[in-house]
Structures are given as C-alpha cells and as structure tokens.
Amino acid sequence: MATYHLDCSSGIAGDMFLGACLDLGMPLDLLSEVVARLGLPGVAVESRKASRGGFVGTRFRVLVDGRPLEGPDPEEHDHDHHHHHGHEHGHEHGHDHGHNRGLTEIRGLIGRSALSPVVKDRAVRLFQRLGEAEARAHGMPLEHVHFHEVGAIDSIVDLVGAAAAVEHLAPERITCGPVNVGSGRVRMAHGEVPIPAPATAELLRGAPIFGGPGGELTTPTGAVLLAELVTDYVDLPAMVLDGTGYGLGKKDLPHQPNALRLLQGRAAAERAEVMRSEVMIMEAEIDDLPGEGFGFLMERLLAAGALDVYFTSVQMKKNRPGTLVTLLCRRPQLDELAGVLLTESGSLGCRYHAAARLEAEREILEVQTTFGIVRVKRARLAGRPLAAAPEFEDCRRLALASGVPWRDVYRAALAAAGAPG
C-alpha cells in the first residue's frame, strides 16, 4: 500500500486536493461517476492542465450547465480541457445550486445515492465533522447548522469526490507538513472574519499552521480533509518516491505557486524493523485538583493535539500525595499544550524534554461491519502482526446509531479485520 504526503505550503482546498489526485493519475471518470451517482442534474466536472508560478499541474472544477461555478480562471487559454457530464443539461441556467443546506439534507442526498457504502460513510463523516466544527465555532446546536459555502454543489462534489478518491488511492497513511492558512479577512454569512475562518481554525486544532500573503489559502473543505485523513504531521517522512501530483487553485499568487503538492511513495526497502521519530514529553506534579478536573484536563489536552496523556500517583514535598501528569506531543504543539496544562491544572510550571521514539509500522484499515464502516489501526513489526485497535469514535457513533452496546461494534470490527477478539 502506498503512503502519501501533503505539502500545504500554499494551503489546501477541496478542488486542489482532487486536482492533485488527478495529476497523480486518478481517472476523471471516477469523479464523473460520483456526480452521476449523486444524481446532480446539470452538473459536470472538468480537469485541465495549467500552471501557477511556474508549476504545471491539474486544475479541477465543477461545472453547472457548462459553466464553472467559481467563474472563469484568470487564464482561460490553457489547453487539454477534459469535460465529463454527470447528467444531460436539462435545467435552465440560473437555478439555485448554492442554497444553504443542513446536515440532514446532505446526509439524505448521500444516503439516497448509488455510491458504495465505504464512500458514503466517509463522505458523511466529512460533513459530520465539518458540521461539528461549525457548531462549536458559532456556539449553536449541530441540528441548527446550515452549511453556507460548503452547502454549494461544488463543495458537495469536492468532499464526496475526495471520499471516492481516498478509496481509489487506498493509502496506508497520509502525512502532512505545516499548513499555510493565508492572511487577511474573508467574507462569510456572519460578516467579515479574520483568517483562518472559525470553522477552519476548529478543524486545524493540533495541526502546525502558519500565515502568508494571498488571502484565504486553506478553506473549511480543505481543513476537514486534513482533520479526517492525516495520520501524522511531519515535515517529510522517509519514502521511496513514486510520483508527485500538483493540484492548482484558482488564484495566481504573486509570491508563490498556488498549488497543493501530493507526494506518493512507499516504505523504503532499507527501512529498519521499527520507525524512528521524535516525541516531546511534558510533565507536572499536581496536588490540589479535584478528580473531575483531571478528567477534564485530559480531554482538553487530547483535543489540543496531545498524542497521549496519563496520570501517575506520586509522593510530593511534606509527604503530600499528588498526581504526575505526563503528556506526549510533537514539537510544534509544545507551547499550546503547555498553556492548556498550566491553565487547566493551576500548576505554576511544567518541564519538558525531547525523546527518541521507536514505533512499529502502522496502517489504518476501513472494515465493513453489520453496523457500518469502522477504521481499525493495525500495527506490525517486521511483517508480523502485533495488535489491532478499532477507532473508538467510529464504534461509539455506530453504537449510538444502532442502539447496541459499544463493545458489540468493537468486536465486530476486530472480527472484520481478522484480529482476535
């Protein structure tokens, strides 16, 4: 199975991700089939070769009645256009393709479609995660969230197309470097807001980000793809490089190429039996926090990007019993997590150090159970299976939806993955 690495030095959007996948050789017919299976009349998809800042790549667009929803690109003299129609153009031009849609409406659209169960499940997860981010950002119940920009036809095609693209690419893992969110302000239904937009910022929790000129470079649809697909944020993992794809954005930026780079590779043959990486270890002793406070502290740290959090009973000065809070994180998250630790615990300080970490090879599988799709993390050492662990949030969501105990879904996922229960 291939591994992929996203270079988001010019940000990421849904159309850029699909452009990069197409540039790596994914057939446009796959996305045309998504449009047809969704039952979107008058909608088509297009890809063409273009350049941004000297980089040649693939520009992906959604068309309605033959016209791009975003309007023409700055340059329309490029050649090699490829159009695929999802349906015959039977609708009159100008009907509302971008009205606000609630999560229930989008779920229904995907659920009624003829897409495969795996693609349906991932697409619904993307919109669910996006809706939850919008709800948290604006302080409203999830059922009251209406998708504005992301409710438009092009964004539905982008996210459902991305779900189909991931199924086609079948990645062992997807990593990502630091993410350029852009700069300035962006106009939304609630007025002008600073970049990153509220939902984008929610989705990028735990990700290393930076700003740069060019306006909004990372959109909510791009951010939700990172939140859903990326297994680790690293500068560049060791791999044997097999291919590179460039997905182009609409704007031509004066300071840098407006392109998302997707690197495709495979594990190096000479890789050791275990992978080596760096992890930061941060800890503090606490003796005046109620038990419930420790639970909340752990939740906050994990939500902010900690890799692991655990508590150890210790004996402190003057023979006082206390608790040692230890967390693991990547170096870019160090300052943010230290702030959470000190704020929520009331501790006056914490200490940290870097440590080398040896890791078994890991892969994320998606298995089909009678309850739905569950992601399962599987570890190997020198090709020998070590352990398998179903994703808790998937098991929790399916257990609530099916009205069964969580452990039933967990065991079904283990069985589907071929692991002992």
Kindly name the structural category: alpha+beta
Distance between the termini: 25 Å
Tell the overall outline.
globular
Using only C-alpha atoms, the radius of gyration works out to 23 Å
> What proportion strand?
25-35%
Instruction: Estimate the mean pLDDT confidence.
Output: 83
Unreliable segments of 5+ consecutive residues? 83-99
**Strand order in the sheet with the most strands:** 13-8-1-15-14
Helix content: 25-40%
Strand element count: 22
Q: How would you characterize the largest beta sheet?
A: 5 strands, mixed
Description:
- This protein is of the alpha+beta class and 421 residues long.
- Helix content is 32%, strand content 33%.
- The protein has a 5-stranded mixed sheet.
- Helix 4 (117-138) packs across helix 5 (153-169).
- It is globular.
- The two termini are 25 Å apart.
Structure summarized in a few sentences:
The protein is an alpha+beta fold. It is built from 11 helices and 22 strands.
